[in-house]
Amino acid sequence: MNRTRVAGYLFALAAGATWGTTGVLSTALFHGGQDITGIGFWRVSVGVLGLVIYGCVHPELFKVDLKGWLLVFGGGGFLVAVFEVAYPYAITGVGVAGAAALLYLAPVVVAVLGRLVLGEALTPLRMSLAVVVMIGVALTVSGGNVGAVLQGGPGLKIGILGGLMAMLSYSGTTLLARWSVPRYGSIRSLFLELFGGAVMMLIFLTLFHRSPLHRAPDGGIPYPVGLAAWTFCLAQAVGPVVGANFLFFAGVRRIDAAPTAVAATVEPVVGTLLALLLFGQQLTVWGWLGLLLVVGGVATSYRSEARD
Higher confidence at residue 34 or residue 183? Predict the structure, then answer.
């Protein structure tokens, strides 16, 4: 058994589990009246602030070559900004179920692009497991009514576009991390991506009159207001933004991008179980079958990586 690969897989699983808390924390902020476009900016910015404080004690964090600024700050920041803006629109356009189903097309995309871009192995098992967990996620979030997942009102097209953009940005971030983390380390790579994402979100949202610093045209509050809102925002920064990405980078540093993406699909499983425990949401038989497919696919992938 290769201990390095097993450790990488466990890190990726832990990252997915931590990301699974995003829905609960975001729901709390939505209920507090915060505008949907501002959540991503503020949780990323709080994470950046924490890393800057760390950098004051460890100034080597800021020592990056030109390629790092261009590819990780620029390219990675762009991917972070796209995800943080597009995914909330996916949720509002096609619902949480539809957004999650679109997002977890990513393992299939990562498996293919990992071969084309990074030269990673594209084995029949890896591809099959990516498809299995994708189907499992779709069943979990839809309760078996897969045909109704992408049905909606006037915002349907925007929601689908947002979901696909979030999926592509997540896939791109996974591949970029596979390249950047061995070169710059987890902390520096995360700092560059989040810093670039915060800067780009501030610029683009302001250009489209959705500045996270001022009230939205429809009266939405784009920034946390009150102790509870800031607490939820801080929890997102510490958990899903910084903590989960550290875990994910630790995983992608040890194993290929494809199995890392498969392992991270435990996110909707954790989110669904939290919804069951905290909000009393019920799960159909098809939904439980979907959970089993995700868990089974992840477990099979784990055993495969452990044997290699």
Answer: 183
Whether the per-residue pLDDT at 40 is higher than 90: the answer is: no
Supply φ then ψ for residue 46, to 5 degrees: -65, -40
- Give the phi and the psi of residue 105 in degrees, each rounded to 5: -75, -15
* Amino acid, res. 218: D
pLDDT at position 95 is 65
Top-confidence residue, 157 or 247: 247
Coil/strand/helix, residue 122: coil
Instruction: For residue 157, give the amino acid letter.
Output: K
What is d(CA 107, CA 131) in angstroms, rounded to the nearest whole number? 8
pLDDT computed for residue 96 by the predictor: 63
- pTM of the predicted model, to two decimals? 0.83
Residues 6+ apart with CB under 8 A from 216: 35, 37, 38, 209, 210, 222
> Tokens standing for 215?
């009230």
Q: Indicate the SS3 state at residue 34.
A: strand
pLDDT category of residue 23 using cuts at 50, 70 and 90: low
Residue whose token pair is 């607490």: 231
Spatial contact of 260 and 248, defined as CB atoms under 8 Å apart: yes
Contact 110, 219 (CB under 8 A): no
In this predicted model, what pLDDT tens digit does every residue of 243-292 receive, in sequence order?
A: 999 999 998 888 888 888 888 878 777 777 776 676 555 667 777 787 77
Distance CA 193, CA 241 (A): 11
CB neighbourhood size of 2 (10 A): 13
Determine phi and psi for 221, rounding to 5 degrees: -95, 110
Distances (CA, A) of 57 to 46, 51, 130: 18, 10, 41
Q: Do the Cβ atoms of 243 and 11 come closer than 8 Å?
A: no
Segments in the chain forming alpha helices (H): 3-19, 22-31, 36-57, 66-68, 77-103, 106-118, 124-142, 156-184, 186-207, 227-236, 244-252, 257-263, 266-279, 285-307
